[in-house]
Amino acid sequence: MRPEEIIAIKDLSLAARRTIDGFMAGINRSKVRGPGLEFSQYRSYQPGDDLRSLDWKRYARSDRYYIRESEIETSISIRLLVDASNSMGHRDGTITKMAYARWLAASLAWLAHYQGDALGLYVFREGRVSVLPARKDAQHLERTWHQLEMLEPGGSFGDPIDYKHIFLGEQKRELLIFITDLYERNGEITRLLELLASLRHEIIVFHVMGRNEIEGDYTGVAEVEDLETGARVVLNASDREAYRARMAGWLSARRMQLLDQQIVYQLLRIDQPLDKALRDFLQQRQLMTG
Known about the structure:
Strand content: 15-25%
Mean pLDDT: 84
Helix content: 25-40%
Structural class: alpha/beta
Radius of gyration: 22 Å
Number of strands: 12
Shape: elongated
Order of helices and strands: HHEHEEEEHEEHEHEHEEHEH
Largest sheet: 6 strands, mixed
């Protein structure tokens, strides 16, 4: 299904499940682990060992007794950070960046829940951040979907100094997934990412943009408005090539800036499927869990 067809589904949880079902049908399912523990080491059985630690499947294959000696937890803690400032209301065709961000976040939430990960949701709008702390249970997933379903863009992003404490409390490494258009007034998103990178978390930035934004294709439109500042710009067809050049330079600079901070970056056009984003998530998660 095309993005506009999936996003048109009123039930966000259903859209997320359909997206992940379709995605998993097209990949090697061994890349998607279910919840639980993985055994990292075996040894031969010795008299006196706890029989509950015997690996009976291994015995059936080898006719020898093996003890599962140690385990590693494969679930991790994931924070979804969603930019819901005014600029996320930008529309390309029938899809807004906000609708695409909701769909992406809901799909990632379902995929994370499937793998037994703790999931938190952090929404930036109206100069504040609303927090749904990380948990693993099914009811929490439903609450996450509900919060996303109700989400509409509004106001500015806010200054990281106002919510710095939220990200300082955790001692363990986490996977932070930031869904944003990277538009900022006074470097507030840049400062947030610098802060998060300094805490040594793993970070993925999914940069959502409309095709018309990237290409400067506003055919039939005489004037556009900056959704963050309210400033209006009169469009001139002769300026399109210069616009494209400036946009390409900005995108390249943002990408290099984030890569220099060891942040994974992926540009997502809102008229394209989520496959690239989902693959990036699985790859980064696998690096964290081994």
